[in-house]
Amino acid sequence: MKSWKRKIRMGMGGGGEGAFIGGVHRVAAALDQQIEMIAGCFSRDFENTKTTGEQLYLDPSRCYRTYEEMAEKEAALPEGERIDFVSVVTPNKMHFPIAKTFLQAGIHVVCDKPMTFTLDEAKELAQIVEKTGLVFALTHNYTGHPLVRHARKLFADGELGTVRKVIVDYLQEFLCVPHEKLGMKQAIWRTDPAQSGIGGTMGDVGTHCLNLLEYITQDPVSEVCADKSTFLPDRALDEDVNALLRFKGGGKGVFAISQVAPGEENDLKIRIYGSKGGISWAQENPNSMEVYKIGEPKQTLTRAGSNLSDVAAAATRIPSGHPEGYIEAFANIYCGVVEAIRCHIDGRPLETKEYNFPTVYDGLRGMEFIYKAVESCDKGSVWVKM
Amino acid sequence: MKSWKRKIRMGMGGGGEGAFIGGVHRVAAALDQQIEMIAGCFSRDFENTKTTGEQLYLDPSRCYRTYEEMAEKEAALPEGERIDFVSVVTPNKMHFPIAKTFLQAGIHVVCDKPMTFTLDEAKELAQIVEKTGLVFALTHNYTGHPLVRHARKLFADGELGTVRKVIVDYLQEFLCVPHEKLGMKQAIWRTDPAQSGIGGTMGDVGTHCLNLLEYITQDPVSEVCADKSTFLPDRALDEDVNALLRFKGGGKGVFAISQVAPGEENDLKIRIYGSKGGISWAQENPNSMEVYKIGEPKQTLTRAGSNLSDVAAAATRIPSGHPEGYIEAFANIYCGVVEAIRCHIDGRPLETKEYNFPTVYDGLRGMEFIYKAVESCDKGSVWVKM
Amino acid sequence: MKSWKRKIRMGMGGGGEGAFIGGVHRVAAALDQQIEMIAGCFSRDFENTKTTGEQLYLDPSRCYRTYEEMAEKEAALPEGERIDFVSVVTPNKMHFPIAKTFLQAGIHVVCDKPMTFTLDEAKELAQIVEKTGLVFALTHNYTGHPLVRHARKLFADGELGTVRKVIVDYLQEFLCVPHEKLGMKQAIWRTDPAQSGIGGTMGDVGTHCLNLLEYITQDPVSEVCADKSTFLPDRALDEDVNALLRFKGGGKGVFAISQVAPGEENDLKIRIYGSKGGISWAQENPNSMEVYKIGEPKQTLTRAGSNLSDVAAAATRIPSGHPEGYIEAFANIYCGVVEAIRCHIDGRPLETKEYNFPTVYDGLRGMEFIYKAVESCDKGSVWVKM
Amino acid sequence: MKSWKRKIRMGMGGGGEGAFIGGVHRVAAALDQQIEMIAGCFSRDFENTKTTGEQLYLDPSRCYRTYEEMAEKEAALPEGERIDFVSVVTPNKMHFPIAKTFLQAGIHVVCDKPMTFTLDEAKELAQIVEKTGLVFALTHNYTGHPLVRHARKLFADGELGTVRKVIVDYLQEFLCVPHEKLGMKQAIWRTDPAQSGIGGTMGDVGTHCLNLLEYITQDPVSEVCADKSTFLPDRALDEDVNALLRFKGGGKGVFAISQVAPGEENDLKIRIYGSKGGISWAQENPNSMEVYKIGEPKQTLTRAGSNLSDVAAAATRIPSGHPEGYIEAFANIYCGVVEAIRCHIDGRPLETKEYNFPTVYDGLRGMEFIYKAVESCDKGSVWVKM
Question: What are the counts of helices (DSSP H) followed by strands (DSSP E) for chain B?
Fold first, then answer.
């Protein structure tokens, strides 16, 4: 197959010096040696773009002043020379225009979450993706963990019954300190509604929770009742949200997120209890997962243990006991992207039938959740249907 | 002091053969060798009472046909011979009439939770306790844990700032199986509104959660929005409840309880985050607690470690590393009761000024919480003020 | 049966004010309400004995000046009035003379470990126990844990194959500080060879390790090669010992104990790997045990879970998830003693055929181990056969 | 600086299809995007080399029939075009000849452990490295973990006092099954003394333990007493070793390794207790480490927490709470190599003065340890000086 003759070629929008998530995307893309990073517009500040490009050993002619220029010039190059896809790692505000521009130029897109600045943009983006038929992946990276994929399989296979209760928490200390007043770039845009949108913590960590629980259970949230809080002075966006959830299948859930939880680093935990059994998984120790079935002893499954489903086993690189982590799971999203782009190049269908990464519809779902949760809060924390 | 010349004398209402919590009360009372069990009406079935009495090496003349008879005859005996207090360990329905009868006979009372069958009874009981001036203790046993007492001290001393977020979960597998149809005594009455009252899981484990979080934070819940569920057929009461909480001090919380959570045994966990730090404690591993302060490494405090407050240290019997558990914490409630009764006998005030155990007001609070949560659910899971 | 008409009556040698383990024995004996404490000689200082007796609500006439007097006078009382057994909780030096005196007076004995001051005493004591036919129990309390009993059953049933590797650690911080110079009673006698014997840490915690591993595996240690250390100045006895072990069945082991390990409280852990599977159990979290079988996921068994053997289930009081600990396991030794004494009184055989507690032979084994390990060290850490 | 104008160029000896550790080296080298893989002789089977090269998108002209040819032809290319270093990832037997060949051709070397097939080779290799002045790194990858580096700093700074006790375990299930009879390549050579050398498990995992403990404590092992075992039939090498250790500084240790421990995946744990405090770290959960200081609560430090030393912080890529693992630590070794090679190219000294990775002397030390431990065993498990 033609596509396997070369690495897939990547460009980046955002992720210049001083940024956080851009570097994560590059590391994740590099890990499996199927992708080469060859172009970028890393910042609105062209000096930053040039310095960043140099640090990444890029050809200076592939470092662009604007993303529009990058889309245009790259698209004009022949296939195999031009970038195959661009990763969009800017603040939320810019996700949509950049993604749209590249898609319309015929270039596949990987985009960080939350997908867009507004819900309307999300809807429009979904239409563009449909129309272009290009690959669009959203980096809800936690679905890249092998044990998360195994959990999804357990529910899909009915081994744990129908979902009755979900408890998902995502707690960080990040915003206990007013970093945005102390010059931290990421805190500045995350706490600024003009760059982040209507959700603060809701957009940053809340959308991961929704995506994770719907990914595992495949049982969509049908109603939400949320209560958001802002504790530090001079902040406009939510720092903390609690919510009650109801699922289409009749189950119920609680959702507790915070970026003002002292001592918590990236404490995402999910427990799901069904009619026949349950699971418990925590992002900070992603190499094991507890599985319960009524009447049996608790089992601890491990990331690459001998008792995993094929889908889980396919997402792990090294033997059990040799821990993989955040980067490896993130890289699994990129693996799915590489596979999809290769299929696109070769004009053949995906073996897995559906994309093995979160899509534009996951991104749309996340934006709907932000909007519904904020609506719930604005109306006095009432139930809102999704 | 007169009271120290002898052990304190205990009677029991309920707790005959086949019951669960009565045995726990007896073990807890025996542990510290300050109490002797001497009388009882263990069942409505006098044969059961006689057999139970025999197994407990009681004088047959102190095994009574009815609790009314027991209250009357014991009260007629001279002090030092009669029971000093009675422990009420029946299904909820009988708590109030028994407690009332003994209090009116001048006998102190220890009572299991939830305190009464109805909220009105709870209010009346509070008045009776006030009027009689007798000791009344409610066995919210989890407040007997040394580290829980230390957590309360940390919040009382302001070391962790004002409360911003509370997450409390209490999960059990207990009712995943229809034990009430299979003859299990405890499941029969717990799932029967005629014996349990309007709260099922809410009364059984939910009141512990409320008590625990208000005990530690001393910041009362001011509003609740609850969503209850019943999954198994033919059940009338809640098996599972989720709720959002708001605190008087401005903090927020989530509350997730279930008795249909496969694999969970008695999984009560509480995490409280304040403006300066936080704590995390889990009932199943009660000998350690995590304490976080912003900017400092996480600390793990241990039950009898050298860094505990006096109140915590006073509630532990053996050196750190030698685990204490459920019974020992339960026994700490009885230690407080013994101390209060001894003070009452001697006519001297408590050194600690306030009772070192949950009181009738905690019981009243618990009943209010059940009623408010059920009201919230009945109205469609709306916010209800407490 | 005659014996079930009354509680079993207990006396105590040692355990006066200021002592540690005496209080533990009393709590453990009280827990299950089958034993009443009625007599004692708690100290060589009669004032201490009297005060202690008063605190325990004893009849002053049952508080004795010397243990010889106690043995003589108690033995002269009729059965049912006299003590059925005595618990010996003095420093090691006095174990033998007291135990011998009571056994010869026809009174059963419970004794703390290590059993005697010298190996010769241990041999003589075994003969006395044999000759008198009385109950003698040694409080290697860790064998009282339900999950330890379950582990023994797993090996006995061959479920884990033959033992290949044992790793046992027992670490404490206790002697990092020269407490014996600061007046701590227990540290004074424990660091004094004239009161403790030839083993320091070896006697205090090392004998527990040997007992625990032989109890579980039923595969005796056949050779030992030990290396002992003393780090603090002015100490005569070992504070820390490492050893290699060989088992009769061909397996091997390491043994690492210390009382100068900063931060460790009572950190006894045992891991045993057989040809088919293995277990891991830690005293500080005794309510769960990991069980592995080749090719299967790791299981976590819990103290009162539904997957335990009868022997384990029989040693637990309360449902799983409600943690039991050190005292409860200690109390299980006393339960076995009560059962054995009741059988003795009734003249009937034990249902379990063998005593359900460590016996004089376990004590003798422990003393041999101390002597062999010290011999190994004294010869330059060479292999010594047991 | 000249070196920063381009990526460092890597070749590989070994690591063809069917091998394990070669892929790990490639992933680790790719992660930080400072290295490009451009040449290889992946197997003695040239077909395998060609296929592997194709999968890695290598220029076919850089895929070589023999390592000698590769060394010769690469060395003949100009700097910047030729490989800067080669990674040697063959079975132990071939480490020395390959490393020697490349060093003598002027090419830097990264080599897997144990360093050589015999101790004599190790000595000769050290001399070659000294003479050539080239970079030689041994992938004792566990020293790449940020918290391991922090632990070393704590001991170097005297914060935990002098070492008194070390407990190191490294347990795997790997060889419980006779994989070498079932065709597993790695098991075949690992269990074959003709390919592995005189140590089996000792070479594979034992050398990691020695390296790790000496790296952290900087207190060399001065004496060893070892006891090795082989349990499965038809195996020539050790599967399991226990050893007692003595340190130059007066401390003592135990060492327990096994590849026949059911249920254990890659269970490397190290606990080190000094006169003032101690640490506990486990490879399977490398993102946290417990630190104890006498009189203070236990602390849990995290991989990228705010309380780490600069050396630890420098070895981490992503924020705390986002777990890094085996690959990231392995990549840290490569980061050190890249830095050293860049300095070599630029003719400038290392900022850190010493190499930030295990060197040929660590490899020599490891080989000495294997030989001394085997000597100890062969003489009946006696003490042997190092």
Answer: 13, 14
Pairwise CA distance, residues A349 & A326, whole Å: 29
The count of other CB atoms within 10 Å of the CB of residue C120 is: 12
Tell me if D300 and B295 make a contact (CB, 8 A cut-off): no
CATH 3.30.360.10 fits D152-316+376-385, yes or no: yes
Q: Are D115 and D103 in contact (CB under 8 A)?
A: no
For A318-339, how does the pLDDT look when each residue is reduced to its tens digit (9 = 90+)? 999 999 999 999 999 999 999 9
The highest-level CATH class for domain B146-308+365-385 is: alpha beta
C interface test, pick of A298, A299, A320 with most C CB neighbours within 10 Å: A298
- Tell me the three state secondary structure of residue B265: coil
The CATH classification number of C146-316+375-385 equals 3.30.360.10
The answer to whether the complex's ipTM is over 0.90 is: yes
User: With an 8 Å Cβ cutoff, are D299 and B298 in contact?
Assistant: yes
**Over residues A264-288, mean pLDDT:** 98
Contacting B with CB below 8 Å, chain C residues are 6-7, 20, 23-24, 26-27, 30-33, 37, 56-57, 172, 264-267, 283-287, 302, 305, 317-328
Interhelix angle for B360-378 vs B119-132, to 10°? 170
Dihedral angle sign, alpha carbons of residues A171, A172, A178, A180: negative
Chain D residues bordering chain A (beta-carbon distance below 8 Å): 6-7, 20, 23-24, 26-27, 30-33, 37, 56-57, 172, 264-267, 283-287, 302, 305, 317-328
Of D313, D332, D320, nearest to A325 (Cα)?
D320
CB contact at 8 A, B246 and A240? no
Q: How many Cβ atoms sit within 10 Å of the Cβ of residue A194?
A: 10
Domain with CATH 3.30.360.10 in chain A: 146-317+365-385
Cβ neighbors of A314 (< 8 A, separation 6 or more) are none
CATH class of the domain whose range is D2-142+332-355: alpha beta
SS3 A266: coil
- Give CATH 3.40.50.720 domain extents, chain D: 2-142+332-355
D262, C253: Cβ pair inside 8 Å? no
Whether pTM exceeds 0.95: yes
Range scoring the smallest mean pLDDT among B121-135, B280-294, B345-359, C20-34: B345-359
Are A284 and D321 a contacting pair at CB < 8 A? yes
Specify the pLDDT at position A4. Answer: 84
**In Å, what is the CA distance from D11 to each residue of C204, D64, D86?**
58, 10, 4
Does the distance separating the beta carbons of D298 and B299 come in below 8 Å?
Answer: yes
Average pLDDT score over residue span B257-261: 98
Cross-chain CB nearest to C33 (options B30, B264, B266): B30
> Which residues of chain A does D324 touch, with a Cβ-Cβ cutoff of 8 Å?
325-327
Q: What is the mean pLDDT of chain C?
A: 97
Residues in CB range of B96: below 8 A, 6 or more apart: B115, B116, B117, B118, B121, B122, B124, B125
Q: Are the beta carbons of B163 and B301 closer than 8 angstroms?
A: no
Chain D residue numbers with beta carbons less than 8 Å from the beta carbon of A284 are: 287, 321, 323
Select A146-317+365-385's CATH number: 3.10.310.30, 3.40.50.300, 3.30.360.10, 3.30.710.10: 3.30.360.10
Q: Are A88 and A99 in contact (CB under 8 A)?
A: yes
Helix intervals (H) in B191-291: 193-196, 201, 207-217
**pLDDT class of A112 with cuts at 50, 70, 90:** very high
Q: Collapsing DSSP states into helix, strand and coil, what is residue D216? A: helix
CB A203 within 8 A of CB A196: yes
pLDDT in tens, D233-263: 999 999 999 999 999 999 999 999 999 999 9
